[in-house]
Amino acid sequence: MAGTGQVPAGTTPVAPKNADVPQTRMARALRESLIAGALAAILGFFFLALRTDIVTGGLNVTTRWGLWLTAIAIVFAGRMALNLFWFDRDWGSGKPARKTIVAALPSGKTVGRVALLFALVLPFLFMALFPNKDRQFIDLSILIMTYIMLGWGLNIVVGLAGLLDLGYVAFYAVGAYSFGLSAHYLGLGFWTALPMAGLLAATWGLILGFPVLRLRGDYLAIVTLAFGEMIRIVLINWNDFTGGPNGISGIPKPTFFGLEIGRGEGSFGDVFGIPYDPIHRFVFLYYIILVLALLTNFVTMRLRRLPIGRAWEALREDEIACRSLGINTRNTKLSAFSIGAMFAGFAGSFFATRQGFISPESFTFLESAIILAIVVLGGLGSQIGIVIASVVMVGGIELLRNLNFLKQVFGPSFEPTEFRMLIFGLAMVVIMVWKPRGLVSTREPSATLKEKKLIKADQVAQGEGH
Amino acid sequence: MEYFVQQLINGLTLGSIYGLIAIGYTMVYGIIGMINFAHGDIFMIGAFIALATFLVLTTILGITFLPVVLLLVLIVSMLFTSAWGWTVERLAYRPLRGSFRLAPLITAIGMSIVLQNFVQVTQGARVKPLPPQIEGGITLMSGSSDAGTISAQLSYMQIIIIGTTFVLMVAFSLLISKTPLGRAQRACEQDRKMASLLGVNVDRTISLTFIMGAALASVAGLMFLLLYGVIDFYIGFLAGVKAFTAAVLGGIGSLPGAMLGGLLIGLIEVFWSAYFSVEYKDVAAFSILAIVLIFMPSGLLGKPEIEKV
């Protein structure tokens, strides 16, 4: 095992690199595949070969040797293929320079403009191209756009200010519940509640940010995680006010300057003379979240050019230097927390109006993890990277819901949706190992001298949590 | 008084389980400075392996003598769970060594999702109940109150849990302070590059750290299974968060701190549920964490981080 530190990622450490014994590629691949297969046999034994089930009178163990052996065979073959066609591939004289997605494209700005244009016409594209499935696709776009907005919001905290926040979903929940509760008790509409939700979430950002000012790195991470869980537990248990685990239902839909999007007298379609179609509501919701997300992006980009944004990035790079230069680190951190929280609040109240129903179930740690994963997988601090990551991760797992044709291959008892989160988790691991700096690993610098150059992501201190 | 003593015993039992899991967090954090988010799920894997082994031994092989069964279950689940711990490190963390800090955190969260859903897919989402195996106990004291007789009882199960934890803790402290492995581990903790220059195999030491953490988590998993008698694929998350809270409370990177933190979190939870409300026991534990960290930003027994410029 000596010198495994130099072995490139992905080769098995169990196989010593013995220079004295000449090994053919095949022999090494065979041995490593055998090891991988044996490991799969060990790991899978209690989970694939055995299955415990509840029967009358206790638990019963059944054996599934076929499944176990299949899994071992798959791992063996997979490792063999990887070894022969990937790890031991002839790379020529040195590895080819890795290209990043954006570096190959003209520039971040052009990509952004094209993406914006695409986003603006997207609902009409869907209506024209997929008349039967347009509702489903627009709904999916709304979901992805919500995650883009949340990613952009969290990016302020994690990507710019470098504060690792694992409880971002708490502010999302605050936004959703502040609209849900004000609609339930006060009868407020979406547009009135929206700024209020943002304000409330920002206030909570301040309240929760204040005690953790002195904490760094992982201490900060666990306390923010704890705050996220606390808000959820309070929402579950405060039955009289929040409805407990049953949540709040009947949350009103947004109106278009007072006009309902629906059927009947005085509705949007009636006034503008467009015949009613249920798709209108989806298109309208899509444009609301698009505007909200663009607002988040616009504010972030502007703030980066203001002293406050520069202070965030300085704080991320070095807190001590920051303090020595007279930057008020307390206000800098709190402003990052509360502005990030505000956008989560907006997104939350949008979520409430889209679903029409909210419950604490929607605001679990998994949600925080997904948002953080989108930010990191996209490439911390990169706005376009977050868009790509959201489309890949959220769009990808939603597409997995439509894999019913696999039932014909594996039999009717096969339930593809069960594998959704399993594949999601695997994708997180694989993308991160493949591109540790995220999908887009170059940044446009905020401040420049004379000319603008793209900077590599590894030149930036990221999320060290100072 | 009897009620108080009973809650104290319950709290110590729960705290022992948290402490055992917390050690895994704190060791990994100490050596490579990352939160191993999948550790809670390794605990869950350990509990499932223990359950399956127990059933195989009792129903298929027909061994009925309980101490032998439990000992075999303990050994098998420690071995197999260690293999899981090693694999997780190998696949998700080692390729990212030397990368920036958030990368292994994301793969850890990803691994946690993978493990949970793997168990859900292969073993089903329903809870697995196991009837209590060890019954009876010693009555320490009893008295009468308005509600009838109240007695403080120390069950054999609790004796086994607290005793095993104690033995493991002592063995573990000796391992860290006396053996070459422990020395290598402490060296890697202080300075990985220097340790490798002096001939310590860093990768191997880190792998062994994960293996030991997983083995301790599997013991905790077995205890959880025997104590509560119900497991499902989701138990890892909450136990993991609590144990991590315990590790941070005690000062992350410190072994006695992890044990102390575990006991404290266990006691807080049990006493809060006994005297105030069950619903808010987690809020109580998390609040104590936040309050302690405000005044002692590096935990109870942690070393303050000195940053050189």
What does this entry look like structurally?
The complex is a heterodimer of chains A (466) and B (309). Helix content of chain A is 62%, strand content 4%. Chain A is mostly helical and 466 residues long. Chain A folds into two domains: 9-87, no CATH class; 103-459, ABC transporter involved in vitamin B12 uptake, BtuC (Orthogonal Bundle), CATH 1.10.3470. In chain A, the strands form three sheets. A two-stranded antiparallel sheet of chain A has the order 1-2. In chain A, strands 3-4 form a two-stranded antiparallel ribbon. Chain A has a two-stranded antiparallel ribbon with strand order 5-6. In chain A, a hairpin with a 2-residue loop joins strand 1 and strand 2. Chain A starts with 24 loop residues before the first helix and ends in a 10-residue tail after the last strand. Chain B is built from eleven helices and four strands. Chain B has 309 residues and is mainly alpha-helical. Chain B has one domain (2-295): ABC transporter involved in vitamin B12 uptake, BtuC (Orthogonal Bundle). In chain B, 50% of the residues are buried. Chains A and B meet through helix 1, strand 1, strand 2, helix 8 and helix 15 of A and helix 2, helix 3, helix 4, strand 1 and helix 8 of B.
Main interface by residue count = A-B, 75 and 77 residues
Strand order of the largest sheet of chain A: 1-2
Average predicted local confidence, pLDDT of chain A:
81
* Approximate shape of chain A: globular
Number of separate structural domains of chain B: 1
In short:
In chain A, 62% of the residues lie in helices and 4% in strands.
